[in-house]
Every structure is written in structure tokens, then in C-alpha cells.
Predict the structure.
Amino acid sequence: MLYETAARADELLLLDIPEVDMGNIHPIHLHRNTFEVTHIAGTPTAGLRKDMPMLGGYQEMAICVVTDQTGASLLHCHQQLHMDYGFMALLRVS
Ligand SMILES: [Cu+2]
């Protein structure tokens, strides 16, 4: 089952990406958007805009997305095996 979250257009959406029990690097990608990384591995960041930051194993990350792209966008780890195990979610903006 694919996890889904919904948001309205033209808002700021804060998403927490929890650490996962895999000791690998996770290239976190959100289709059709760039976003700001606001925390990574417990460290606050500012001005770090990405569309695919690398998240280390056993680390967490928080991102801020401006929801200016209506429709569905897939947020996922870019490692195929991790996607196969369910490391993905669908963001629906309307
Ligand atoms: Cu991964």
C-alpha cells in the first residue's frame, strides 16, 4: 500500500522523513519539485534547496515544500530496492 498525503496549492508543507532501519545512503527525490532541507541528521540548515538530497543511513531529515505544483508527485528513495520495500509516498496537491 502506497502512503499518501494531501495538501492545498500554494502552501508551505513541512515533511519529516524519519530514519529508516537500513544502513545505506538514501537519495530522496520528489518528482516535479525542488524543496528546502530544513534539518538533516539533527542539524538545522538554511537555504539548502534540492530535488534529491542524500540522506545517510539511520539519519532523519525535514524538508519544506512550496506546493505550487498541483497533481500527484512521488516522493521516494531513488534506490530501487528501497522503493521495492516501500520507501515512497505520494503527495497530492489540489
Ligand atoms: Cu533508500
Notes: The longest strand covers residues 43-50. Residues 24, 26, 77, 79, 82, 87 surround copper (II) ion (CB under 6 Å). The mean pLDDT is 93. The chain has one domain: 3-93.
